[in-house]
Amino acid sequence: MIKVRIPTPLRPMTGGKSEVEIAGNTVSEIIDNLNSAHPGIKERVYDEQGEVRRFINIYVNEEDIRFLTGKDTPLKDGDEVSIIPAIAGGA
Amino acid sequence: MLAIPSSIIRNMIAHARELAPHECCGILSGTASAITGYYRITNILAELSEQELSRFDGAKLSDLHRLSPEERADIAFQMDAREMAMAQRDIRSKSLDLLGFYHSHTFSPARPSQTDITIAMEFESYRAKLNFPEPFHLIISLEHIEQPVVRAYRIQESKATEIPIQTMP
Ligand SMILES: [Zn+2]
Q1: Contacts for A62-70 with beta carbons within 8 Å, 24 or more apart?
Q2: What is the pTM of this model?
Q3: Which of B3, B72, B73, B106 could bridge across to B34 with cysteines, CB 3.0–4.6 Å?
Q4: How confident is the model at residue B61 (pLDDT cuts 50, 70, 90)?
Q5: Which residues contact residue B99 at a Cβ distance below 8 angstroms, ignoring those fewer than 6 apart?
Q6: SS3 assignment, position A36
Q7: Tens of pLDDT, residues B88-147
Q8: CA of B31 to the centre of ligand 1 (A)
Q9: Rg for chain B (alpha carbons), in Å?
Q10: How far, in Å, is the centroid of ligand 1 from the Cα of B102?
Q11: Cβ contact A55–B81 (<8 Å)
């Protein structure tokens, strides 16, 4: 199982949970399986072209998947996936 | 005390002025409490549609939704995630730390807004798990256009505490 960290804006979909355990061999499978368990997550994380939105970082352990093999990044038991919005702010 | 080379202060102010009235944003690197590098990051807010923003986070738009994307970028920023990750990677390759974030306030004073504090606390909630040190938050105010003001803060437990800046030659 893979531990997935859920950012605040997506927690309404996970019943308020900040971490969930999901099975999957790649990041893409994790997002699909997460979406089966908690519908609505996938369309929030991916844009209309199916790419990770421009303001979201997905980390496997401490590395951004854009520097691994993207959504195909393989996962093994004990890996941790973090879905994290890039820093923002308001005046 | 936070030490910052005067060249980086000048560059952050120049960045803020170039993008005004939009807010600029960026990342600061260094070690301990001395900044040694900076990365300009694109504020993508002006390029994001309302649909794209609200699909991820409806709450975020609560005070922005009547505005055009261009207007939103005047009073808020959203870092480009890819550029942010590239900066983090570069910082790590130099064995430095990601020491802070900066952004401009084009019409308001150099202190964190409630939104800034809320988002800083959100970052705080996962920061340690990703091995980032506690960041400084710097704000460049262009409220008085001829006299830009730069201030640094720590944001803990939903409170911002100003940290004096020591400008290095
Ligand atoms: Zn701000």
Answers
A1: A62/B130, A62/B131, A64/B85, A64/B88, A64/B89, A65/A27, A66/B82, A66/B85, A67/B85, A67/B89, A70/A27
A2: 0.92
A3: B3
A4: low
A5: B28, B29, B30, B31, B33, B35, B133, B135, B136
A6: helix
A7: 999 999 999 999 999 999 999 999 999 899 989 988 988 887 888 899 999 999 999 899
A8: 24
A9: 15
A10: 9
A11: yes
Name the β-bridge partners of B27.
Answer: B39, B101
Distances in Å between the Cα of B64 and the Cα atoms of B35, B46, B71 are 33, 12, 9
Task: Give dist(CA B128, CA B160) in Å, integer.
Answer: 19
CA of B160 to the centre of ligand 1 (A): 12
Instruction: Name the nearest CA neighbour of B92 among B12, B154, B37.
Output: B37
ipTM of the complex: 0.91
Sign, CA dihedral A55-A60-A64-A66, equals negative
Tokens describing residue B139: 């704000």
Q: Are B26 and B39 in contact (CB under 8 A)?
A: yes
Alpha helices in chain B (DSSP H): 6-19, 50-56, 69-75, 81-93, 114-127
Residue of A nearest to B49 (CA): A47
Write out pLDDT tens, residues A70-90: 999 999 999 999 999 999 988
